[in-house]
Design goal:
Blueprint (H helix, E strand, L loop, with lengths): L1 H7 L4 H10 L10 E9 L3 H13 L5 E4 L15 E2 L6 H8 L1 H24 L11 E5 L9 H9 L6 E2 L4 H6 L6 E5 L3 E2 L2 H14 L3 E3 L6 E3 L4 E4 L4 E9 L9 H4 L3 E10 L3 H7 L6 E3 L6 E5 L5 E6 L22 H11 L8 E11 L6 E5 L2 E8 L8 H13 L24 H21 L6 H7 L10 H9 L1
Parallel strand pairs: 1-2, 1-11, 2-8, 4-13, 11-18
Antiparallel strand pairs: 3-7, 4-6, 5-6, 9-10, 10-11, 12-15, 12-16, 13-14, 14-15, 17-18
Length: 481
């Protein structure tokens, strides 16, 4: 077991802790040619939820998962452990699929959080779920009111997912004077994400799903059935689900619909006395309203987990993701400095681990699902854009419906979208991405320093895709398009 933990600890402390508790089996790679009704490529949240929902709806369906490394070692074991709804992205959702469907999907995404709590209780998954809400905050004057367009529009529609705060309440909730204002969404949670992923794996196995870890897909051979070719074997399946997140960039049809950015995380040692002194003792999650978002939460034993989305200027050219955003974070010192700016009581020596990972970010910051062009039996899920833990539950239901050929509310929902070229081809994509990423960083830095960014940086930053939550910049874009 120790060798497994050592190999996977390069990804996140979450996964190391989860493996240490469960005494995992040695990964079983695929070493033969097998047949299945559905082959799922990717053993993270989306792949596991899809497998579970397929088996629940159709127990006789033969489902095989092939995972390149270990289930939960990708984005599902590296994220911040925020379980959020889609309400913060309502405006983009309404633009994509209409007001009524956007409201329905937002409501379903909130219900999914309660469903997750019940699911974990029912199946004995200790994911450390704490239903303590999410603070959408402003930490600079430039960020003030970033939530206003979304919250006001929802209030006009009779919806109140966000609670408005009194003066000084954001700072009190967050335990930090850096927080100038914000709104609070009660129906949000924090979890230990790798423990959830490993718990989903155990339940999928109990349902009869066959899982092969250390089994990367080398190529997908089109046809009906299709064939997923792996190093030592293959899966011949009537339907294929690509639940690969950013690693789906190897498919040209998919790559054109998202860009890959980094998410970088640092974690402190347990600091219960500090958290007690500042009054942040629950599982409330927090994110600010900068474009390169800061997101942070505590753990039940008192650690602070602090992340930065898109913080690295290391971008991916074409499909060359490979291991580029694996292992320790290259900007850990920068992320830790932002943590200590928010919480000055944290000392440099208190930060004990860090990691990085890729995010597949669509132009509107929303996940998209559907079938590949000219391959109606191959389905994809892309673009959680930093908010995948909760919405992947919806994704699992959508993909299960598509794979089973069901004509229902999930197969027809507004997140089922055809692939479009939302980003230019290479090398324009890479060069332009570097320019836009630099501009976004400069705009955020100017806000931190309470000064006006240059006109050019402001204009270039408007080309950036939406992030975890909408900012004033992304809201003005969606209103003008």
């Amino acid at each position: 077991m120790s060798s497994v933990i050592t190999r996977c600890s390069q990804f996140s402390s979450w996964l190391s802790a989860a493996l240490a508790q469960e005494n995992p089996l040695v990964p079983t790679p695929l070493t033969q040619h097998v047949n299945a009704d559905v082959c799922i490529v990717g053993g993270g949240f989306t792949g596991l939820w899809s497998a579970i929902r397929i088996k629940e709806a159709s127990p006789e369906t033969e489902v095989v998962i092939v995972e390149a490394r270990m289930c939960g070692s990708g984005a599902s074991g590296r994220n911040g452990g925020f379980v959020l709804s889609l309400w913060a992205k309502y405006q983009s959702l309404a633009k994509m699929c209409g007001e009524a469907e956007a409201l329905r999907l937002c409501q379903l995404s909130s219900q999914a959080i309660f469903e997750l709590e019940a699911f974990c209780q029912q199946h004995g998954i200790d994911a450390q779920l704490r239903l303590d809400g999410w603070l959408w905050a402003a930490t600079t004057t430039a960020q003030l009111g970033s939530w206003e367009g979304t919250a006001s529009q929802l209030e006009r529609l009779g919806q109140s997912p966000f609670l408005r705060l009194a003066a000084g309440q954001a700072a009190q909730l967050a335990g930090s004077a850096l927080h100038l204002d914000g709104v609070f969404e009660p129906v949000s949670a924090s979890i230990q994400p790798a423990m959830l992923a490993r718990g989903l794996l155990r339940h999928a196995l109990q349902l009869g799903v066959k899982v092969y870890e250390s089994t990367p897909m080398q190529r997908l051979e089109a046809g009906s059935p299709a064939r997923v070719q792996c190093p030592q074997g293959s899966v011949r399946a009537g339907k294929v689900i690509l639940a690969m997140n950013a690693w789906a960039a190897q498919f040209a049809d998919i790559r054109k619909a998202f860009v890959v950015v980094s998410s970088d995380v640092v974690m402190t040692r347990p600091l219960p006395d500090l958290l007690e002194s500042i009054g942040w003792t629950n599982g409330m999650t927090i994110s600010d309203s900068r474009m390169l978002v800061h997101y942070y939460r505590t753990t039940p034993d008192g650690c602070i987990v602090f992340g930065k989305g898109g913080g690295s200027e290391q971008l991916v050219y074409g499909s060359r993701l490979a291991d580029k955003l694996d292992g320790p974070s290259g900007i850990a010192d920068t992320v830790a400095a932002h943590l200590r700016r928010a919480y000055p009581g944290v000392q440099a020596a208190d930060v004990v681990s860090n990691w990085t990972g890729p995010i597949d970010r669509t132009h509107n910051g929303l996940p998209h699902f559907g079938a590949l062009p000219q391959q109606a039996n191959v389905f994809y899920a892309i673009g959680y854009s930093g908010n995948g833990v909760g919405p992947s539950m919806l994704g699992g239901r959508i993909l299960a419906a598509l794979a089973l050929g069901q004509d229902n509310e999930w197969a027809r929902c507004g997140l089922v979208q055809g692939l479009q070229r939302d980003f230019p081809p290479e090398p324009i994509r890479y060069i332009g991405g570097r320019l836009v990423r630099h501009a976004v960083g400069q705009v955020d830095l100017a806000a931190d320093e309470n000064r006006q960014p240059s006109w050019l940086m402001q204009q270039l930053s408007k080309l950036a895709p939406a992030g975890l939550s909408p900012t004033k910049n992304t809201q003005s874009q969606s209103q003008s398009r």
